[in-house]
Design brief:
By secondary structure, the protein is an alpha+beta fold. It has ten helices and 31 strands. The strands form eight sheets. Strands 28-29-30-3-31 form a five-stranded antiparallel sheet, with no helix packed on it. Strand 21 and strand 22 form a beta hairpin.
Length: 540
């Protein structure tokens, strides 16, 4: 380490705003160089700048700890000039504890006992730890539990760890924390991310060379494909968990499994037929290997995704099924019924549980949290039921108007609720339900319109709209960012690809599904025999 010079520039500042102290700035860079292993560069910066990383007393203290000169290091610690006696005692405890442990490892039991009695105990710090150390003297097993072994007799690794603990304990002005420069840079990037309204790029795309700012072009806003295989209104669609498939259901009594290719192109994989009524919803199994389709007040069918084969039909005599979903472990399914009950089945169709009463409505969404503990359903026109299966406890979300649909966030902490009054409400469902935000701007007068979370960290809200548009809001601010034209009928449902930040799908009464992406694509029109698919250049 370089010897401190008489003038270290403590009062100088750098930067356009004059708030960055030059000495601190240099020290942090020096600390980063040493941390990265650039010893010569760090030493040269100290010498050339005349600003040492540490004072001579601190350098001496660190060297004494490294050399195992415990008594000397405790004495030097008192010379550093710490005003907080608690910090001095805590640091002394760390040093003397290491002294005690190394004496035990060298089988100097009497000296270790003397250190414990006459040096550690008088500090009156961490008495529980003192008792553990005392047990070490008579119990080798306790020594093993505390990480003391016959290996590393020189204590090099242990001493390095002590220095790390001391750096965290002592004031940063005395011992600059490890990776302080990296921390400052990461905080700066965090601020830029949060300030970026359109932020929708992976962290790997961030650069230190310029300030980060996404534009609208990072939001899927251009029609890349139009899928035209359904013969009637498309009511529902949902991407698989891995983003490799898209499923859609229609008034034409069918559901379709679409495959998302590696190049982003979407092609028809299977058409699932057999329902006698319109297919209202679909639900992917946790492993995406199977899918459920729910006929409107009819039956639920379970299908194999690879083959398109129907594996099982779930039905209940005299009762229609109106919604469907999977157990988190994939070993069973649940459904809302027309008699307002909720039933759970195993995969073979055996009924496991059934909650009767006003648990759901005839038109109802349902969800279950990833831990399998809570079932969520619309239980009244303006209320959502949060049913705890284990605690047999119920909570309600009471809304101001009729609820038409809802969507559960990926982290199971939030619920997105669509209302008949043309508002979408975001609720926190951790603990007592709390209304967090409202989103306005879409149109809804007659039909069920569905919304979804999406983008990086689910930072955006997307929704269909009866005016043929797809609306996208910023989740935190509630600002309407985009209204995407293109469909020629009401947009009933949207789904954001969980594996592709820049892919959004929408389904409409115009019988089509639109795949939205970034506007730098320029794909030519083309037809496929397995369902009509148009590739677009972004214009509708």
């Amino acid at each position: 380490m370089a010897r401190p010079l008489t003038s270290q520039g403590d009062g100088e500042t750098i930067g356009s705003q004059g708030v960055v102290k030059k000495a601190e700035f240099i020290k942090i860079i020096t600390r980063a160089l040493y941390s990265l292993g650039y010893e010569k560069s760090g030493a040269l910066l100290e010498e050339e700048s005349g600003i040492p990383l540490y004072s001579s007393v601190v350098n001496l203290f660190m060297q004494q700890v490294t050399d195992g000169k415990w008594d000397d290091s405790v004495a030097t610690l008192c010379m550093i000039g710490l005003s907080d006696e608690t910090i001095v005692k805590s640091a002394s405890f760390l040093i003397l504890e290491q002294k005690f442990l190394e004496l035990l490892k060298m089988e100097k039991v009497a000296a270790a006992l003397d250190t414990l009695r006459n040096e550690i105990v008088p500090l009156h710090v961490n008495l529980n730890r003192v008792h553990e150390l005392a047990v070490c003297i008579i119990s080798p097993l306790q020594c093993v539990r505390l990480g003391i072994s016959g290996q590393d007799t020189e204590g090099t690794k242990s001493r390095s760890k002590i220095l790390e603990k001391l750096q965290k304990l002592l004031p940063a002005a005395i011992m600059i924390p490890e990776k302080r420069l990296e921390h400052l840079v990461e905080r700066a990037l965090d601020v830029q991310r949060w300030a970026c309204v359109y932020h929708n790029t992976w962290d790997s795309d961030l650069s230190l060379y310029s300030d980060h700012q996404c534009g609208k072009n990072q939001i899927p806003s251009q029609t890349l494909q139009i899928l035209q295989a359904h013969k009637d209104e498309v009511w529902f669609l949902q991407f698989s968990h891995n983003g490799k498939y898209l499923a859609s259901s229609s008034k034409d009594q069918s559901a379709i499994i679409w495959e998302v290719k590696e190049n982003g192109q979407v092609s028809l994989k299977h058409t699932l037929c057999g329902h006698q009524k319109p297919v209202s919803t679909v639900s992917w199994s946790p492993d995406d290997g199977q899918i459920l389709t729910c006929g409107q007040e009819e039956v639920i069918k379970r299908w194999d995704v690879s083959s398109g084969e129907c594996l099982h039909v779930y039905e209940k005599s005299g009762v229609g099924l109106i919604s469907c979903g999977w157990f988190p472990d994939g070993r069973g399914i649940f459904s809302g019924m027309t008699d307002r009950s909720i039933c759970l089945w195993d995969l073979d169709g055996r009924e496991l549980e059934c909650w009767k009463g006003q648990r759901t409505l005839r038109i109802s969404d349902m969800a279950i949290t990833d831990d399998g503990k809570r079932i969520i359903s619309i239980c009244r026109e303006s209320a959502i039921l949060l049913l705890d299966r284990e605690a047999k406890f119920e909570r309600l979300i009471e809304e101001v108007d009729m609820i038409t649909s809802f969507s559960l966030s990926k982290d199971n902490k939030f619920l997105l609720v669509n209302l008949i009054n043309q508002e979408i409400h975001l609720w926190s469902i951790e603990g007592d339900p709390k209304l967090v935000s409202k989103y306005k701007g879409h149109k809804r007068t007659r039909f069920i319109i569905r919304s979804c979370f999406g983008g990086l960290g689910q930072a955006f809200i997307a929704s269909g709209s009866e005016d043929s548009q797809v609306c996208i809001w910023h989740r935190c601010s509630g600002e309407l960012l985009l209204a995407l034209p293109g469909h020629s009928g009401a947009v009933n449902c949207v789904s954001w690809n969980p594996a592709n930040l820049h892919m959004l799908a929408s389904s409409s009464d115009d019988r089509t599904i639109r795949i939205w992406g970034l506007n730098h694509f320029n794909l030519k029109h083309r037809d496929h025999s397995n369902g009509s698919i148009h590739h677009c250049n972004g214009r509708s």
